[in-house]
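Usage

Read records sequentially. Each one opens with the input sequence:
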Amino acid sequence: MCLPCRQLGVAPSKRYGLGQQAVAETRVTQTGADVVIVGAGIAGISTAYYLGMAGIRSVVIEKDAVGSHASGFAFGGLGALSGSGVPGPTFPVAAKGARLHRELSEALPDQIGIDTEFRRRPAMALAFTEEEVRTARADQGTRRAEIGNTAQWVDGDEARSIEPSISPEALGGIYTEDGAEVEPYKLVLAMTQAAEGLGATVRHGRVTGLRRDGKGGLRVELDTGLVPCGRVVLAMGPWGGGASDWLDVPIQVRPLKGQILRLSAPGPPIRCSVGYAGNYAITKSDGLVWAGTTEEEAGFDEAPTSQGRDHIMGALLKMAPSLSDSRLVRQTACLRPLSSDRLLVLGEVPGWDGVYIATGAGRSGIALGPAMGKIVADLITNGSTDIPLDAFAPGRFAP
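and closes with the structure output:
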């Protein structure tokens, strides 16, 4: 059983467990597929799910295990519309993602019987200096004007009345009740099983290249053979840059390492997600305080570090000093895909009819993943999507 399954007490489907590796690889190379999706994180699995909803079967090829990287170890915040490109080109994708998450929270438990632990929760972004107060209020004014964000400024006393753990040194914060969260691995697992029920197949294998077959089709190269197909979706997360050599198109995506602490904390739970300078803390459904995160340029090193732990604890105690007696239960690290301009890489690859890329969500992978999958599924089934994609064009990194 893969590590995320074990830690959550959820049994994976035997069809994509690592124990079926040899049989699965042989079957894939013999049968081919209408659509091959490379990568079984949130973007790849969402694509398979929405293709299945449209009646199109796909084969998802994953070199490790479903949700075994960032999608299985993320925090799972779906909160107020924020992140790179919001306000801006990412906003329509974020809004679509928020709507799809609400729909999935109702559909998946009925379809699969897995509670993805979707819940609404308020959020507070703190300010500790007068300069931070001015910046926060100006930014909120911009967001309210451009995207209709309903968050509001509250002073320090009101902030502490909402969440008593907030530091007495905080001057206030931007407060919203529009936030939400989900348990990421359970979401990916539920969507995987739902996609399988709609005809998708998940197989273990290592993709090593992509070629045209000379007859208008494509062949995905595995280390065990070839998979003939009509369409290919590259949803390889931070490994997406490796496809540059296959495509002869530069894909400027790199890993952004992030670490999270899970803490057993005294006192009442933190029910309002508290944030400051890119860090956050909240008590999740497992009863632990989840605190994060780091943004590290560490290549493909996924190991937790003492430096990451100390950084997160410093931010946590600034936000909520009463948590100084917390006990560290678990520390995790994962790699998120970040493009060189911090925007999504989403759409059809220039010069490759029928090849699509979905990556580059950075810290917003869980929030944006279902929307990215739906957009790619729409491109494959309809040839178009309702979201403007020019800013995310995979060919934009070419000289």
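Summary fields computed downstream for this record:
- Residues 127 and 134 are 9 Å apart (CA to CA).
- The chain has two domains: 3-75+184-252+341-397, 121-178+255-336.
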